[in-house]
Amino acid sequence: MTRKTSLVSADWVAENINNKSVAIIEVDEDTTLYDIGHIENAIRFHWRDDLQDGLIRDLISKDKFEALLSKFGISNDTTVILYGGNNNWFATYAFWYFKVYGHQDVRLLDGGRKRWELDARPLVTAVPSRTATRYVAQDRDNSIRAFRDEVIAEIGKSNIVDVRSPQEFSGELAAPAHLPQESGQIKGHIPTAKNIPWSKAANEDGTFKSDDELKALYVGAGVDLAKDTIAYCRIGERSAFSWFVLHELLEVKNVKNYDGSWTEYGSLVGVPVALGA
Amino acid sequence: MRTCGATPGGPDLAGVDVASQSIIQGAVLREGVNDGVPNGAPVTNAYVRLLDSAGEFTAEVPTNAQGQFRFFAAPGAWTVVVLAAGAREEVKVQAQQGTPVDLIIEIKD
């Protein structure tokens, strides 16, 4: 059961806050929340500033990933615990990212920052200091990462799972409803994609639903778990959440996160697009 | 604490293209009176969820230091759900383009 190796409870984190072999990382797009308060001994990764190349649209290079983890005192044998706001979107994105670079032991705090806060567990403002290490990353594992040409080639073949909201899928909205709607992309979805919003995999408190509920969710929506699967959203973080559910919790083989997602696909010239529910 | 001069409800709309957006915003406050000011104290660690007319999840934001939140929705019926430690509140709203919905949502201790 990968639920045991990929997911930890808030109680587990509370018991391991001072465990030197554990590194707790808060990952988000709005990292000002970290300044207001974070789990004791947690370090901060900014989804864009730390994990995006910045010049080109891509993950940071292996060298930069090694430098980042070394700077924050993370070793190859460190147990990395990821959590964040936004129902762990960016934390699951970072989980996927750590897997792309071959980190052995990375786990997600079930429910993320929300469950922690709803439980009224303590947050602190002190920033921990960790002794720098020499981290060695693996070459990127692209078996869990989909690129645009593959996505286009897999239309009508693989399961394509659009995990955005029904409004984004149908073409009514161009972005999640907490973001401004101006956007350079056209609206709609990749033809043959099934709309299974990421949120259906989560309970209201941000924790994951049970394996039985999750399996019923995807199978019930027409996903053939024996086939290859590509998940996408708008920028690849919500789809990392659903990738986590499929690949890590349900242990479905050959699931890829298309991190280019709709911001890339919806900007491509001449590719097929579908509208409506 | 909210001061007498604070704008009731959601965050300042300066710089937001209100005319083109269907905004639902507001503030989450502890019920009652705080330091003599009605509407109580802002709840800064609440989570506000936006559900569509079918009750499906659409978006979620944490409240800011003033207890405020904002959604850019589409015209139509929506439900706003507030989650805070030990509390849950639901408000049904009707969004329309150009006229923000501005809410005060009180939660009980």
UniProtKB/TrEMBL annotation, chain A:
Stored InterPro entries: Rhodanese-like_dom (IPR001763), Rhodanese-like_dom_sf (IPR036873), Thiosulfate_sulfurtransferase (IPR051126), Thiosulphate_STrfase_CS (IPR001307)
Spans through the membrane: none
Gene3D superfamilies linked: Rhodanese-like domain
Listed GO MF terms: thiosulfate-cyanide sulfurtransferase activity
Keywords: Repeat
Ranges of residues in domain Rhodanese: 18-125, 154-274
Protein name (record): Unannotated protein
Lineage: unclassified sequences, metagenomes, ecological metagenomes
TrEMBL record, chain B:
Protein name according to UniProt: Unannotated protein
Pfam family name, one: DUF1416
SUPFAM superfamilies attached to this UniProt entry: Carboxypeptidase regulatory domain-like
